[in-house]
Amino acid sequence: VRDFRQKDHPLTAPLTKENDFPSLFEESEFALAQAYLQIGQEYKAQETLSSMLAHYASANINHSYYLSHVWLEQAKLAMRCNDDDTSLRCIVMAQDSGKGYLSVDQSLNLWILQSECYRNKGQLNQAMRMLSQVINEDVISALRLKAMFLRAEIYELQGREELAMRQLEATAKKGGEWAELAIEKLRTNYGIY
């Protein structure tokens, strides 16, 4: 990846002939950022992601699958630093740049991440609104059950135990990983199930 950034590299001209940021370059640079994240080199990953954003800007690319994922990774890095405002901005950019490219689950996951940021900021009503958006989406997805479970946690934070318990009971009836977690929480916190 780094060699192709050099203007005198023999493959730079053919690769960038039709596009300033060809998909081969885009994919390999994103894979490099992912590799840095996997080995715990967040600074290098951040550098690579920022470089990608600069390439997208210079190539005038505003919507793409990888652009959306670059913003998502930026959001996750900001969350690790407890910078929820930056994370929220990055999530919105991920949503906007990913229109037409993201799967339903990827879109739902972005709403759940937004909810987490709002929750961290103490904006529980906003967090609840994002989770309700996920739950009310007319799709089959385990992420809807995750949102139900997380909504129960917010009810608990708000001191609304009755609603939390009902939400957990509804989640428990659905089956799967989140149902098991709901059952465990009902046993532990409410002495039922």
Describe the structure.
The chain is mainly α. The chain has 2 domains: 1-102, Alpha Horseshoe (Serine Threonine Protein Phosphatase 5, Tetratricopeptide repeat), CATH 1.25.40; 103-193, Serine Threonine Protein Phosphatase 5, Tetratricopeptide repeat (Alpha Horseshoe), CATH 1.25.40. 72% of the residues lie in helices and 0% in strands. It has 10 helices and no strands. It has helices at residues 12-15, 23-38, 42-58, 65-80, 84-97, 104-120, 124-136, 142-157, 161-172, 177-190. The longest helix has 17 residues, at 42-58. It is elongated and about 70 Å long. The termini are far apart.
Topology at a glance:
Elements: H1 12-15, H2 23-38, H3 42-58, H4 65-80, H5 84-97, H6 104-120, H7 124-136, H8 142-157, H9 161-172, H10 177-190
Helix pairs in contact: 2-3, 3-4, 4-5, 5-6, 6-7, 6-8, 7-8, 8-9, 8-10, 9-10
- Our estimate of the beta-strand percent is under 5%
- How many domain units? 2
What is the radius of gyration computed over CA atoms, rounded to a whole number of angstroms?
20 Å
Query: CATH class of the largest domain, anyone?
Result: Mainly Alpha
- Find the count of extended strands (DSSP E, 2+ residues): 0
Main sheet, how many strands, which sense, barrel?
Answer: none
Sketch the topology as an H/E string, one letter per element: HHHHHHHHHH
Low-confidence stretches: none
- Individual helix count: 10
Give the N-terminus to C-terminus distance in angstroms: 55 Å
Q: Compute the average pLDDT.
A: 92
CATH topology of the largest domain: Serine Threonine Protein Phosphatase 5, Tetratricopeptide repeat
